[in-house]
């Protein structure tokens, strides 16, 4: 009887810990980028892209990307976060971090998406700043990436 | 009777005191201002390295074209200059230059010149070990097959840009990308100022002025890859050009246009830097 209980407990612990474990996914940039390219068509043309790779830590971490734009033109920003084993908070501002006049233009928390692809089309902006904020986790050596793609429409 | 009166008086006094303390006050209520703080400031600091994105030379070329950048023969870098390019640094810069020249010829339906520049880029990409870029997706064949068809060609060039970005990322060559872009950017600016010098064009001046948004990031990006100081001269040249955009105010919402004097000085420095890059 005691053994049965002990074994049951052991199995439960194993099952629970496996279910709760956050695992790394290999970052296949080409696949992630190709998924975003479909979201550019038909109106936008590829301009540039960036892949941000992370090793998740116990504390929150972030990074900022500066993007120059021509205010009279139309752009589409696309973010593929499928490869990240955690939820990232993507915030887009009109000024760099530390600037007192910084205004939040977009937050991924406001966008509901099942495919973990986020989209933003800025209006009349010269430079924008994309911030990725990642939560801290307990597991070690967990990695992931975010692929970002910028498309433009001239005229 | 007296006891009742005292009790009643006490009740009235206490009630009054109660009412005064709970309401009827005309004191100003100061509302606390709720300041929404930037949630990222504790996580990303100004010390952290910013990632600088750079626009594609194709986008800049298309913007200039839509502003009236016309074709002037012999403005572009002669293909014969490619034979003099020996160092990796010069190869990267001139790969950018010739990319800009090819885009300029494509957009102005200069078929033979476009083909010539494609050949130069193929040769340079082999020297830079980037041959796969033009061969992948059949880019080289697609470019040749569509020479003369501007619309298709710009899409093919966008694909080429994407392949190059992917190659540079996979091989951790971000700084090389910035140097290639610097060559393309200087060449495009050179074409812009020369065409404007031949016939003044306000739209083109506006596009030239707008380039201030790009130059800071370009300089920042090259600096990040300059651990061995191999790009110090280029940084110095770009900072000299950037000084002409000093009047640009990032905080202002008004469109920035270079004064005539600033434009003349900018043109002079662009020509000087471009000459350094192409005449080896």
What general form of chain A does the structure show? elongated
Shape of chain B: globular
Number of distinct beta strands of chain A: 8
Low-confidence stretches of chain B: 23-35
Number of domains of chain B: 1
Radius of gyration of chain A: 20 Å
Q: Mean pLDDT across all residues of chain B, rounded?
A: 84
Element order of chain B: H for helix, E for strand: HEHHHHHHHHHHH
Any descriptors?
heterodimer; A: 155 residues; alpha+beta; Jelly Rolls; four-stranded antiparallel beta sheet; 2 helices; 19% helix; B: 280 residues; mainly alpha; 12 helices; 64% helix; 1% strand
What does it look like?
The complex is a heterodimer of chains A (155) and B (280). With 155 residues, chain A is α+β, with helices and mostly antiparallel strands. Chain A has a single domain (24-153), classed as Jelly Rolls, CATH 2.60.120. Chain A is 19% helix and 37% strand. Chain A is built from 2 helices and 8 strands, in the order ααββββββββ. In chain A, the strands form 2 sheets. Chain A has a 4-stranded antiparallel beta sheet with strand order 1-8-3-6, covered by helices on one side. A 4-stranded antiparallel beta sheet of chain A has the order 2-7-4-5, with no helix packed on it. The longest helix of chain A is centred in the N-terminal third of the chain and has 19 residues, at 2-20. Chain A is elongated. With 280 residues, chain B is an all-alpha fold. Helices cover 64% and strands 1% of the residues of chain B. Chain B has 12 helices and 1 strand; from the N terminus they run H-E-H-H-H-H-H-H-H-H-H-H-H. Chain B has helices spanning 2-22, 57-66, 88-107, 111-127, 131-135, 139-145, 150-170, 174-198, 202-210, 212-224, 232-242, 260-278, and one strand at residues 51-52. The termini of chain B are far apart. Residues 23-35 of chain B have low confidence and may be disordered. The chains are: A alpha+beta (155), B mainly alpha (280). At the A-B interface, helix 2, strand 1, strand 2 and strand 7 of A face strand 1, helix 2, helix 7 and helix 10 of B. Strand 2 of chain A pairs parallel with strand 1 of chain B, so a sheet runs across the interface.
């Amino acid at each position: 009887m005691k053994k049965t209980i002990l074994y049951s407990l052991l199995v439960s612990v194993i099952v629970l810990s496996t279910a709760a474990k956050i695992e790394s996914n290999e970052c296949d940039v080409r696949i992630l980028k190709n998924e975003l390219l479909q979201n550019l068509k038909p109106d936008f043309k590829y301009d540039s892209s960036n892949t941000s790779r992370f090793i998740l830590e116990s504390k929150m971490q972030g990074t900022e990307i500066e993007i120059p734009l021509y205010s009279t033109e139309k752009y589409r920003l696309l973010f593929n976060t499928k490869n990240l084993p955690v939820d990232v908070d993507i915030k887009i501002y009109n000024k760099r971090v530390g600037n007192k006049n910084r205004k939040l233009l977009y937050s991924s928390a406001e966008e509901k998406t099942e495919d973990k692809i986020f989209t933003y089309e800025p209006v009349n902006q010269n430079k924008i700043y994309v911030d990725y904020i990642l939560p801290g986790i307990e597991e070690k050596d967990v990695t992931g990436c975010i692929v970002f793609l910028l498309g433009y429409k001239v005229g | 009777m007296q006891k009742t009166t005292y009790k009643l008086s006490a009740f009235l006094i206490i009630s009054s005191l109660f009412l005064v303390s709970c309401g009827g006050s005309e004191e100003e209520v100061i509302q606390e201002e709720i300041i929404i703080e930037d949630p990222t400031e504790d996580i990303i600091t100004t010390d952290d390295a910013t990632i600088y994105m750079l626009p594609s030379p194709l986008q800049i070329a298309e913007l200039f074209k839509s502003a009236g950048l016309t074709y002037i023969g012999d403005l572009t870098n002669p293909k014969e200059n490619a034979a003099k390019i020996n160092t990796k640094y010069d190869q990267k810069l001139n790969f950018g230059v010739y990319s800009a020249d090819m885009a300029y010829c494509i957009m102005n339906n200069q078929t033979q010149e476009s083909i010539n520049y494609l050949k130069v880029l193929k040769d340079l990409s082999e020297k830079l070990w980037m041959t796969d870029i033009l061969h992948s997706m059949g880019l080289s064949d697609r470019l040749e097959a569509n020479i003369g068809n501007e619309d298709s060609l710009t899409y093919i060039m966008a694909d080429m840009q994407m392949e190059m970005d992917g190659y540079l990322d996979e091989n951790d060559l971000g700084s090389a990308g910035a140097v290639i872009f610097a060559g393309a950017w200087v060449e495009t600016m050179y074409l812009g100022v020369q065409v404007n010098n031949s016939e003044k064009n306000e739209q083109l001046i506006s596009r030239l002025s707008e380039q201030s948004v790009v130059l800071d990031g370009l300089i920042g990006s090259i600096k990040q890859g300059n651990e061995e100081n191999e790009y110090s001269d280029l940084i110095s040249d770009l900072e000299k050009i950037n000084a002409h955009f000093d009047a640009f105010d990032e905080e202002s919402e008004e469109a920035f246009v270079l004064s005539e004097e600033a434009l003349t000085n900018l043109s002079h420095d662009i020509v000087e830097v471009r000459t350094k890059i192409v005449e080896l």
